[in-house]
Specification:
This protein has helices spanning about 70-75, 245-265, 295-310, 325-345, 345-360, 380-400, 405-420, 425-435, 440-450; strands spanning about 15-25, 30-40, 45-50, 85-90, 95, 100, 105-115, 120-130, 140, 145, 155, 155-160, 165, 180-190, 195, 200-205, 205-215, 220-225, 230, 235-240, 270-275, 280-285, 290, 320, 420-425. By secondary structure, it is α+β, with helices and mostly antiparallel strands. The chain folds into three domains: about 15-180, Immunoglobulin-like, CATH 2.60.40; about 215-315, Orthogonal Bundle (Neutral Protease, domain 2), CATH 1.10.390.10; about 325-450, Neutral Protease, domain 2 (Orthogonal Bundle). Bound molecules: zinc ion.
Length: about 450
Amino acid sequence: MPRETGPRDADSGTRYRLQCVMHEAEGTVAVREEIRFVNETGRCLSSLLLRTWLNAYREEETSPAALDELYDRAYPEGFSEGGILIQGVWWNGEIISSSYSDAENTMLWAEIGTLVPGEEGILTVHCVLRIPQCAWRTGRGEERWQLGNAFPILAVWDGESGAFRQDAYCPIGDPFVSECADYLVTVQLPDGWQCFGTAEMVRENGVFTGEARNVRDMALVFEKGDLFSETKENIQLVTNFDRNRREVYATAGEALRIYEKLWGKYPYRSLSIAAVSFAMGGMEYPCCVLIDETLTGDDLELTLAHEIAHQWFYAVTGSDQYCQAWQDEALCQWAVLCYVEERYGKDARNQLAIAYVGDPMREVLHAQVTAGSPIDRFSDYQDYHTAVYGRGCACLCALDLCLSGTLNDFLKNYCEEFAFRIATRKDFEELLYRFSGQDLSALTADYLDTIF
Ligand SMILES: [Zn+2]
């Protein structure tokens, strides 16, 4: 039976059209990007801010993949340059000027003249993406290219400060806060290549086309090998996993079943699970997860369960990943504990909780950071993991105790209330207060903000 309800159409809002052509020998993708922007900021705008994250890969000093501890895995052949070459920017068909405001060239300002509140226009960008030979969110190998955070994307408007957000591409954590939008994508690939990712791609006259509604980003994977698909819980799973495919289907099917039961329906029709060369292990995108192809056994299962949980906590219910990273990462660790308990019983959950929660509460951090610190405060990956994933998850376990085991009922309300939006920490805590009738702010401050 097909899914009865898809995500609501974001038709009145932002829409991206991406036309991509892969140039295999050059290691590049030519892109024509058209963005319909509706000014819902309440202010007159004279410029729009595009985040061009891929430019952080231009130099070793700024590349997110050049972390000391992972460098050799991320760049096995040595450093390889990535980036975006902007060929031109147009507003409603007229060429306009644009310029970068940061040293890394991740903030491209397009000068659009005057756009009053409620009015809309079409921003067109022609660019070439240089894909680095790199095992990271964006990277390419002989038989597979992954394009995560590779396309220029609109910055989020911050109503409080009355400006576009200008978050830096920190190497630790995921700085990519973005709003939901509709995407139409076409991809031209050389013979023998296929394409999958956030959009459900179909081949028509030699060109892959796809559509994704109400998603907050677009990740694509170009694959020279085979693609497989199987339907679980009425959701089409698409994957390039070959060797571990049965295991991947089983874990994904169980994770989707368990999470839907806890927090409500997965609102999309497909989920792509991409095995890629990826030194970090896993990364979430809407309707798509990237998983390190070398993972096996428990590592593969737990990473997959974590990344699929991000479909609820990040993809559908967005949060401020830059300032409150625990609000998606710790929730996904909590999700894995629930997954393990449902599938393998309470003893297995308790065993995993020692590593997920118990150990991080005992570890000594190198810097003065907490689970509630913004990601730019972290300079040590282990600290980030211990504080945000571990102590953040400990906070959720403590909340569950205070709520007599009903944290998941609260989270279901949270997912319903903030679906396709960005929930702030204040939103989370205010809803928690309404749900429980208790002021739990001392407890959350204790776990999330207290240095110990
Ligand atoms: Zn995560």
